[in-house]
Amino acid sequence: MFDNDARTRSPAELARVVLEGSLKLNKGSSVVIETWDHTRAIAEEFVAESRRLGARPVLVYQSESAFWDSLDRQRLESLSGPPASLQAALRASQAYVYFPGPGDLERVRSLPEETRATLWGSHGGPNGYWEATARALGVPSVRMEIGNVTESDARLFGVDVVAWRRELEQASAVDPFQLQHDARRLIDAIGTGREIEIAHPNGTRLAVRLLGTRPWADDGVIDTDDRRHGQRLASVPAGIVSLALDEKLAEGRFVANLPTRKRQGAFDGADLRFRKGLLESFRFRSGEAAFLGRYATASDGRDRPAMIEFGLNPHIRNAPNVEGLGRGTITLRIGDNFQMGGRTRIGYGERFYLTGADVRVDGRPVIRQGELA
Known about the structure:
With about 375 residues, this protein is an alpha+beta fold.
């Protein structure tokens, strides 16, 4: 169910939280705001809020109809890579807000592989392309997940598009400093502990071990610590703490009670059994073929524990693509964990979600029924 009880946030409130909280926009700062047709109204609120803060915004508008017209006429070169004018604007800016597009994601997915490669290089699509562009130009940037809310994907995921958009508006407007505070509380509670036990009345009883690398808190704030570690990008909504797992230790059972939804397919009711650090068996209530589609062709390491994540955002309930952000949601990941200092790098990873669990660290209760103990 979507979180329909929370107060609806206005686009102006959302803009204020992102510009002041996530990007720390100051008077006199320059900010580039890039949008497509389906998020233009929200983007214009970001322009207005930037000016209220005394910043200097530039709105970059990408026309959906012009994009597809150029594609139909085989004018691919005019669409590949950011134009020099946009690159110059980004280099001269202190912040970049990106609303993903184009909005017809169903049509994007139907494009031939060679066309996608011409448009977005090796980055897989608009989101990867944004990340590569922002990193290359060194500008602090926020990607707005609400740009991925479209009629076609709502049909694909079986959700109401209006309720989906409303939930992301609410979740995106959560005070990032509250998320930052909650993330620090959780990290402090875990401390130097290593042994993690997860339990739930649905049959989950799983023991895993932390690798001991530095935890990562995605609180939506690009602060001094982020910049010191070369991190200048954030996605909104935010709210998750990630920790790498020892790939050689996992014993017991993990039963997901939320679906994993991807554009390539969804699966639900995952029941995973681990022994001696390996995923020994699995079954699903539905969608096993969607899981096997990538798992079956992945290389060694696909069946190893990778990461554990703890969601912090109080307004994520049923929004596709960001299920792990929900407060009280535990995400168990298998496969890749190199990005967190782990040993597995195979180009494959999968997520499984569990809400309302108890978590112990070295025998100490840290989470009870999804809430910090």
